[in-house]
Design goal:
CATH superfamily: Response regulator
Strand content: 15-25%
CATH class: Alpha Beta
Distance between the termini: 6 Å
Order of helices and strands: EHEHEHEHEH
CATH topology: Rossmann fold
Number of strands: 5
Number of helices: 5
Shape: globular
Strand order of the largest sheet: 2-1-3-4-5
CATH architecture: 3-Layer(aba) Sandwich
Radius of gyration: 13 Å
Structural class: alpha/beta
Largest sheet: 5 strands, parallel
Number of domains: 1
Helix content: 40-55%
Length: 122
């Protein structure tokens, strides 16, 4: 599975990258902003995007909207990462078309399995 992590926090990207690559055996790329993530999603063709909800300039939901508007990235499954996992927020993100919502902080040993459960076809 090829994963693109889009998160403005270096620590989160590092932990997720380590978890997914070393524990999960996945191919991982990351981006520190929505704009960088949109470029990488188009060129690297990931199987899934792990997307932070709250980022400066372009938040996760607006990145999801931009991904869906581009034919090259429209079908990539999106899994949101958020520190605010209130049920109304989770419902809103799922209604936008996200495949799942994972909470921060996450358990690095469990992250690959959670992602595989949400994206079994990848």
């Amino acid at each position: 599975m090829k994963v693109l992590i889009i998160d403005d926090e270096e620590d989160i990207r590092s932990i997720a990258r380590f978890s997914l690559s070393r524990v999960g055996g996945m191919e991982v790329e990351d981006a520190s902003s929505g704009a960088e993530g949109l470029r990488k999603a188009e060129t690297s063709e990931p199987d899934v995007v792990l997307l932070d909800v709250m980022m400066p300039v372009q938040d996760g939901p607006s990145v999801l909207t931009a991904l869906r508007a581009n034919p090259a990235t429209a079908r990539i499954p999106i899994v949101f990462l958020t520190a605010k996992a209130m049920s109304a927020e989770v419902a809103r993100l799922l209604a936008m078309g996200a495949r799942g919502v994972l909470t921060k902080p996450f358990d690095p040993m469990k992250l690959p399995g959670l992602l595989r459960e949400l994206i079994p076809e990848a």
